[in-house]
Every structure is written in structure tokens, then in C-alpha cells.
Amino acid sequence: MSRLGVGVIGVGSIAEMHLGAYAANPDVHLVGVFDVNHERSAQKAETFGVTRVHPTLDSLLADPEIDAVSICTWNDSHAEIATAALDAGKHVLVEKPLSRTAGETEALVEAVERSGRHLEVGFVRRFGANAKVLKSFVDSGLLGDVYHARATNIRRLGNPGGWFADHKRSGGGPLIDIGVHVLDLCWYFMGTPRAVTVSAVTHARLGNRANVTSLSRYKVADYDPTRSDVEDFAAAFIRFDNGASLTLETSYSLHALEDRLEVAVFGERGGAELEPQLRIATEMHDTVLNVGPQIDHLSFDFAEGFANEIAHFVALCLGEAEQVAPVSHGTEIMRMLDGIYESARAGHEIRLS
Ligand SMILES: NC(=O)c1ccc[n+]([C@@H]2O[C@H](COP(=O)([O-])OP(=O)(O)OC[C@H]3O[C@@H](n4cnc5c(N)ncnc54)[C@H](O)[C@@H]3O)[C@@H](O)[C@H]2O)c1
Q1: Residue among 9, 56, 94, 95 to mutate when testing ligand 1 (max atoms within 8 A of CB)
Q2: For the GFO/IDH/MocA-like oxidoreductase domain, which residue ranges apply (predicted)?
């Protein structure tokens, strides 16, 4: 195979990061796009120099020049489209979250096994320079056994409206949309242990807050400020099979004094904060040290993260890299998210099956 033929399915906001990174990659031929909004696909194809605008999903998946696809649709179609793409012989990069529920991933897991194709979950924050540095420190044992993590992604006024606030299409609110990033990062640095119990709450008290003008910075392609039937805050405590624990707080709307992003892990020999910026705490010669690595972006940089994620996916499809975010990671994260919503509904701690 000379260049990897790529198709992009769903070409709204985040697809622009995928299209831009593919267009800049010399190992890629951007062959086709498909979106249920045909005007949008034609416009994005022109902007990014894509060869074909496919009229249907089936026509894109039948395109013999397409070896791999990015799926950037709403959450309600991730699992179904990924399954169809694998069965059509394509490699798949599917945006986070993998699906709306863990149950939706069952057919997909089987499709990965029978197709022999690669599926990567778009946990893009694993590909930030700060995350790559911290992962190498963790893997080398600098933090020792990591036994607790703190994951926070708080927006004071951050309900994007549109499909994000429509449970049917999103599967949930800030937990499944932005909480998933920080939950995944902590779990990744903890060594992906299996979750055993969850105690959680969700609140839907403040809604879309469409009357607050600064909300406009979160506008999406089909922004509709009038509705929200998802939670606006979630908090959870998770225990893992290796004795480790994790606390999570995330919101679209909260009367907090400021937005807050925090990813912190604590081990027997050291600790680290990945966000708001990478800093590592350790001990040497009876001294406690805070170490700040010298890299361009100490916090997550979108352009760099997506360029790295797409470069890795292309290398994986060309047989030049190992998987970083396999389907098993996507399904385990969905299992935790399901557990959080279930515990919140039940009003007590639950044991995950
Ligand atoms: N990795 C990240 O940091 C990040 C950031 C934002 C969004 N996302 C994820 O990306 C996905 C898309 O989010 P967005 O902000 O780009 O939304 P968006 O609404 O801007 O774009 C989604 C596009 O998909 C199209 N679409 C929806 N269902 C479709 C289907 N079944 N077939 C074909 N096209 C379909 C819509 O018409 C729209 O153009 C979501 O799953 C979201 O969670 C990830």
C-alpha cells in the first residue's frame, strides 16, 4: 500500500481537526466524505481538497480506494457505523465516546474480532505532548504504584446545546462528553485497572442557561439553545480491582468561581498533575521535588494532539505502530460511565457486573 486512502464520516466541528491533520499528512489520500447534511459535506470537501462527496454511507463504505475511516458523527451512531465500516474492511478511528452505552459496543467488539481490522478510540488527550511525557515517566516506575487519581472537568457555562443537550443523540451530558476525557486520562495513567464499584450522583438543576450570552463560545454546528434533557453536573467515586480509587467531578453548568480542568495521579513514589499543566512530584535524597518538564505545551494543545493522534492512526493502519486506544479501552470506559449513571439513578453505590 502506498498512501492510505481515508474517508471521513460526519463532517461537523471536530471533523475539521481530522480533515486538517489528514490533509497535511503525506502518507494519506483524502478520498471521500459523507454527512447526512449534504451541503456541509460538499463545503468541507472543497475546503480540505477531498476527492469525492459520497451521497450515502453505503457508497462511502463501498469505495475501494478507502482503506480507513474517521467517524465524527453524533454519539448515537458511533457503534453502528463503526461496525458497518469494519465489516466493509475499513480500519476505524471513532471519536469519543465509543457509544452511548456499554451495551451498544457488544456487536462492535465482535466486528473488530472478525474483521481483523484496527479500531482506535479517539482518546485524543492521550496524544498531547504532556500526556506522552507523563506516560513514559509512569511506565518507567517513577511514580511507583499509582493508587489514587482525581479527574475534574468543570465548566460554569458550558452546555453547548444542540445534540449535546439531547439525550437521544448524545447518551448524556458533561459526563459522557467532557468528563470522559479526564476519566480516561487518569485510568490510562493508573494502568487501566478494572472498575469494581461506583458511587455517583448527577444533577440537572441549571439546564441550558441559554440566557447567558457567554455561552455562545460553545456553539456547535446545529446549535439549538432552547432544550436540554441531560445532566448538568456529575460526581463519582470509583474503586478498582487493584485497590486503587478515583474521584471525578464534571459539569456543563455549575455555580463555580471558574472553569477547572484537573487530571492528577498519586503513587507510592511520586505524583503528577497532567492538567492544568504537567508537573511531577517526587522524592530524592530525602527531599520532596516538584519537577516541570521543558516541552512546548505543558497543557493539552488541540492542534498538536489531533496531529499526533491522526499520525499514529495512519502509522497503525500502515503496520508501523502499535495500538494505543483499542476497543477494550473504549468499552471499559463505557462500563464506568454506565455505572455512574446507574448509581446516580439508584441513589447508592453499585457493584459493576
Ligand atoms: N476528541 C475531542 O476532543 C472531541 C471534541 C468535540 C467533539 N468530539 C466528538 O466528535 C463527535 C462529533 O462532535 P462535533 O462537535 O463535531 O458535532 P457536530 O454536530 O459539529 O458534527 C457532527 C456531524 O455529524 C453529522 N452526522 C450526525 N449523524 C450522522 C450520521 N448518522 N451519518 C452521517 N453524518 C452524521 C452531522 O450532520 C454533523 O455534521 C461527537 O461524538 C463528539 O463527542 C470529540
Answers
A1: 95
A2: 134-272
